[in-house]
């Protein structure tokens, strides 16, 4: 069996800098010295393997997975779905995808979240699933609300869902956020504005997908994700005639 090719280098111009003056908490959390570039280690190019036995029934249904019997989460019901690819446009099957979010009022189920919006007793705010053989995933959830945060006097975060994708190795793992088409708070957010390329911001916005919406049930938003790719091995190049 041929050895997998090395991962492509990250495009650091695509990601926000670690220190941004208008994102106040980045000041204390960012390094002050130049980063050291290292080659991938064995622990980075390998990773955990997740099977279907690790995923419980209903883990991807946030409307019901924390609710009491006969109840459901409050809010605008949505279907969040998409596919996970690598940079070579290859789908990544059997990949663990996790999400966490605020409830419809904009409050997280966390002891340090003191926002005055009420806790929804039937909404836990987290879920997980595995992609299928085509790299496809989906979640049923409620659209999160906007919420204030202590950056400037009146800073608000747009509605967002946090997402973690493991990929096939730790070097591929991505933790990101997605936003929703049409939200006016996206471009007013100091965190979003740390991203230097407007095209990169657009990639974080999930468009409305009426073709996947379920009549009299939920709207749908599509969010495809691209993880780091691998260089082709010599063996693969010969098979492809390169």
TrEMBL record:
PROSITE patterns: INTRADIOL_DIOXYGENAS. GO terms for biological process: 3,4-dihydroxybenzoate catabolic process. Keywords: Dioxygenase, Oxidoreductase. SUPFAM superfamilies: Aromatic compound dioxygenase. Its EC number is 1.13.11.3. InterPro entries: Intradiol_dOase_C (IPR000627), Intradiol_dOase_core (IPR015889), Intradiol_RC_Dioxygenase (IPR050770), PCDO_beta_N (IPR024756), Protocat_dOase_b (IPR012785). Residues 80-108 form the Intradiol ring-cleavage dioxygenases domain. Belongs to the intradiol ring-cleavage dioxygenase family. This is Protocatechuate 3,4-dioxygenase subunit beta.
